[in-house]
């Protein structure tokens, strides 16, 4: 291994401020501005999560710093520098790669703060980074997925066990655990995309380690487009479970690794409101954020790319 290594840590990105939401949303929509109603709806969601504050920015900053520390502690023969590259906000993926080139890095690893591979998600990040790296003569090696890393499964399993303790002893046995992830357009199924299978594998591994038998998978946060998205949606599942007499539900958003809009609004506000209406006790597992086992999983994944 080189004794100096760059790591491009890629994440979704979030607006810099309330007045940057339109630019951010336009970028997500590949240059097509949202309608005034769509924009208003998104602004309201950001306002609802602690008053227009953007937690994903701080969380990504902390994760990138924690990964750099972990790498330098675990592999002290190399000097590791982590660079941030965001999909939809500054610093963009290309900015992170450019910075590595300017800093004289010749070989680097890249990974996305999302453990499951889809050509429509992680594949898109990698393509952009690879293109920019090739232009600048930087050699890059990418992790496509790390969804079964034992430390990731440990960290998630511990969170499921802790969250189950929020239910009363009598209710605990009847809790339905819903593993969730961001939905994608259904057309990924025709492409034989590994995303749904990898998510099921993570859910199965966590269930096995936690001794769960009463669980299922649900999709969340589907986009507002004409395309058909993967289902069933978590809101629909909550209604079905209610019809089946279930009154205790734990959501484990296994496709996300930090607190952001899709957790703090879609689950904590939207799902909770429906659960309250239905008389369901709904709990959620804590996000991984900078969990040391998660950082170790990322560090080992990165180091294996440069061996
Ligand atoms: O906290 C924040 O500011 C950002 C939270 C956030 C995360 C996230 C992760 C994923 N997305 C994925 C796919 C899509 C597809 C579309 C899409 C649209 C949005 C919109 C917002 C948004 N996403 Fe996102 N996503 C986050 C936020 N996402 C806001 C636009 C409004 C809306 O639809 O709600 C549809 C694009 C289109 O219209 O064509 C597809 C996937 C992930 C998980 C993997 C990853 O992190 O990359 C997949 C966090």
UniProtKB/TrEMBL annotation:
The gene is hemH. The keyword Metal-binding applies. It catalyses: Fe-coproporphyrin III + 2 H(+) = coproporphyrin III + Fe(2+). Fe-coproporphyrin III binds at residues 12, 29, 45-46, 125. Fe(2+) binds at residues 182, 262. This is Coproporphyrin III ferrochelatase. Its EC number is 4.99.1.9. The keyword Lipid metabolism does not apply. Keywords: Cytoplasm, Heme biosynthesis, Iron, Lyase, Metal-binding, Porphyrin biosynthesis. Belongs to the ferrochelatase family. Its main location: cytoplasm. Pathway: Porphyrin-containing compound metabolism; protoheme biosynthesis. It comes from Ferviditalea candida. It holds the Pfam family Ferrochelatase. The lineage of its organism: Bacteria, Bacillati, Bacillota, Bacilli, Bacillales. InterPro entries: Ferrochelatase (IPR001015), Ferrochelatase_C (IPR033644). Involved in coproporphyrin-dependent heme b biosynthesis. Catalyzes the insertion of ferrous iron into coproporphyrin III to form Fe-coproporphyrin III. It comes from the Bacteria. It is found in: Cytoplasm.
């Amino acid at each position: 291994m080189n004794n100096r290594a760059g790591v491009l840590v890629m994440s979704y990105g979030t607006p810099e401020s309330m007045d940057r939401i339109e630019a951010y949303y336009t970028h997500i929509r590949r240059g097509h501005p949202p309608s005034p109603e769509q924009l208003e709806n998104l602004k309201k969601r950001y306002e609802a999560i602690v008053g227009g504050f953007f937690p994903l920015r701080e969380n990504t900053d902390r994760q990138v710093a924690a990964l750099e520390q972990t790498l330098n502690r675990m592999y002290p023969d190399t000097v590791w520098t982590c660079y941030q590259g965001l999909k939809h906000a500054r610093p963009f993926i290309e900015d992170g790669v450019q910075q590595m080139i300017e800093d004289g890095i010749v070989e680097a690893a890249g990974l996305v703060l999302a453990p499951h591979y889809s050509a429509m998600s992680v594949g898109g990040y990698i393509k952009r980074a690879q293109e920019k790296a090739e232009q600048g003569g930087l050699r890059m090696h990418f992790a496509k997925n790390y969804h079964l890393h034992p430390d990731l499964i440990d960290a998630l399993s511990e969170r499921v066990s802790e969250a189950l303790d929020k239910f009363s002893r009598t209710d605990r046995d009847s809790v339905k655990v819903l593993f969730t992830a961001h939905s994608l357009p259904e057309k990924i199924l025709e492409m034989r995309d590994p995303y749904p299978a990898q998510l099921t594998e993570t859910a199965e591994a966590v269930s096995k380690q936690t001794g769960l038998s009463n669980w299922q998978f649900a999709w969340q946060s589907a986009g507002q487009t004409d395309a058909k998205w993967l289902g069933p949606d978590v809101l629909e599942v909550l209604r079905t479970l209610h019809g089946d007499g279930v009154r205790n539900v734990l959501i484990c958003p296994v496709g996300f690794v930090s607190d952001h809009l899709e957790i703090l609004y879609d689950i904590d506000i939207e799902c909770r409101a429906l659960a309250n209406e239905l008389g369901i006790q709904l709990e959620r597992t804590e996000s991984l954020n900078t969990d040391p086992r998660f950082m170790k999983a990322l560090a080992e994944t990165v180091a294996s790319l440069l061996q």
